[in-house]
């Protein structure tokens, strides 16, 4: 269990990332706008999972199960897109 | 045999019992990831196939409203973390209050989303007989809004269930005689709530942040 101040810092980081991703959406990065936005979402997701959901203090077993969901998502997207992107 | 209050007989100790509960919740959340990932895949396939139509369609989404709602959900997750802390510290009234506040923020999210839907339906963006949009590929722009209503709708259903659970838990915190026994349940409800928040974090840029630059 961490201090309230610590969680406030995480909240501030999340809101700052939200502001950043909205601001950058108005800058033309060519093909990189969407990858950048998804990268920011990954960072926000990681902050939520590791700090708010306390994954950083969980046992390896719980981490493995949590990671498995992400891994399956990766398989689904990667295999499906390897078809659609190469037609 | 060692029998302690609050520990079911199949567990050695409180730590093992808590890990089993957390593990079960993460298994559920992994299936929820799969449930949402089918829709995310559908979105990805259509967006890669029809980028122009998706860019046209996304111009009609309400960025300010979406950003506000993201902030509301992030804030609600923060309050939920404080509720989990209060449960661990067995502070009954803080726990009830913080759970109620989290529920309130979830309800605020739903009300804002409702006004947003109403505005979009008035503009004729709900796929159906009245759908109309200025795009060179209206049928594909329509697919964006089909996915938009489907994904945000399913997400809103999750928020709604969360609000009901949070409200119920707040009442339970007020009236239970064994506040110490609520810790794990509040912990797991927190995991669910943060998961729903995380789904929104990924939905947000895919809906509101397409082709906003000049």
How would you characterize this protein structure?
The complex is a heterodimer of chains A (87) and B (214). Chain A is an all-alpha fold and 87 residues long. Helix content of chain A is 77%, strand content 0%. The longest helix of chain A has 25 residues. Chain A is flat and about 50 Å long. Chain B is mainly α and 214 residues long. The termini of chain B are far apart. Classes of the chains: A mainly alpha (87), B mainly alpha (214).
Descriptive key words:
heterodimer, A: 87 residues, mainly alpha, 77% helix, B: 214 residues, 0% strand, elongated
Distance between the termini of chain A: 50 Å
Helix and strand element order of chain B: HHHHHH
Strand content of chain B: under 5%
Poorly predicted runs of chain B: none
Mean pLDDT of chain A: 94
The number of distinct β-strands of chain B equals 0
Order of helices and strands of chain A: HHH
Estimated helix fraction of chain B: over 70%
| Cα Rg of chain A | 16 Å
Number of helices of chain B: 6
Largest sheet of chain B: none
Q: Which pair of chains forms the biggest interface, and how many residues does each contribute?
A: A-B, 45 and 49 residues
Shape of chain B: elongated
- Quantity of strands of chain A, as a count: 0
Using the alpha-carbon principal axes, give the shape of chain A: flat
Short characterization:
Chain A has 87 residues and is mostly helical. Chain A contains three helices and no strands. Chain A is 77% helix and 0% strand.
């Amino acid at each position: 269990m961490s201090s309230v101040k610590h969680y406030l810092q995480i909240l501030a980081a999340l809101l700052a990332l939200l502001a950043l991703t909205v601001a950058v959406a108005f800058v033309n990065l060519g093909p990189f706008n969407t990858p950048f936005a998804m990268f920011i979402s990954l960072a926000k997701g990681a902050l939520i999972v590791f700090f708010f959901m306390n994954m950083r203090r969980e046992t390896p077993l719980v981490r493995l199960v949590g990671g498995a969901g992400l891994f399956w998502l990766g398989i689904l997207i990667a295999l499906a897109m390897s078809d659609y992107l190469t037609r | 045999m060692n029998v302690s209050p609050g520990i079911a007989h199949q567990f050695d100790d409180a730590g093992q019992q808590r890990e089993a509960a957390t593990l079960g919740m993460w298994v559920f959340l992994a299936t929820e990831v799969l449930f949402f990932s089918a829709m995310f895949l559908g979105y990805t396939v259509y967006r890669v196939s029809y980028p122009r139509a998706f860019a046209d369609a996304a111009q009609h989404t309400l960025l300010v409203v979406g950003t506000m709602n993201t902030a509301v959900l992030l804030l609600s997750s923060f309050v939920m973390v404080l509720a989990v802390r209060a449960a661990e510290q067995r502070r009954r009234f803080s726990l009830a209050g913080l759970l109620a506040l989290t529920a309130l923020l979830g309800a605020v999210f739903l009300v804002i989303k409702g006004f947003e839907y109403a505005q979009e339906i008035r503009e004729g963006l709900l796929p159906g007989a009245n759908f109309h949009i200025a795009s060179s590929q209206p049928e594909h722009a329509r697919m964006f809004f089909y996915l938009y209503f489907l994904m945000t709708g399913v997400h809103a259903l999750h928020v709604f269930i969360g609000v009901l659970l949070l409200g119920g838990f707040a009442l339970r915190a007020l009236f239970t005689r064994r506040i110490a026994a609520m810790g794990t349940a509040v912990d797991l409800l927190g995991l669910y709530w943060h998961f729903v928040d995380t789904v929104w974090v990924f939905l947000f840029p895919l809906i509101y942040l397409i082709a906003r630059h000049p």
